[in-house]
Write a structure and sequence with these properties.
This is Protein S100-P. With 87 residues, this protein is mainly α. It is built from 4 helices and 2 strands, in the order αβααβα. The longest helix is centred in the C-terminal third of the chain and has 24 residues. Bound molecules: calcium ion.
Length: 87
């Protein structure tokens, strides 16, 4: 499922095997509404997310780089549910 999401958005421009900054933005907006705060800070937030994911600094996010985001999100969700269960 994660692969399908990646391929669907990666294929809209340029290379099908990586996400440009614009493709990542669209993916986050469509699949994770609320992940990026709306408003003036959105560009900054997007820039930070993109740079933190693009570890080899080639200005695209490859699938392994994208998985880092997914891993972080899953870890955050898991932590959230653990805390809910503990209270
Ligand atoms: Ca990269």
């Amino acid at each position: 499922m994660i692969i399908q999401v990646f391929v669907r958005y990666a294929g809209t421009h340029s290379s099908r095997r990586s996400l440009s900054k614009e493709e990542l933005r669209v993916l986050l907006e469509k699949e994770l509404p609320g992940f990026l705060e709306s408003g003036e800070d959105q560009d900054d937030a997007m820039e930070k997310v993109f740079r933190s994911l693009d570890s080899n600094e080639d200005a695209t996010v490859s699938f392994p780089e994208f998985l880092l985001l997914v891993t972080e999100l899953l870890a955050a969700c898991h932590k959230h549910f653990q805390e809910e269960g503990a209270s």
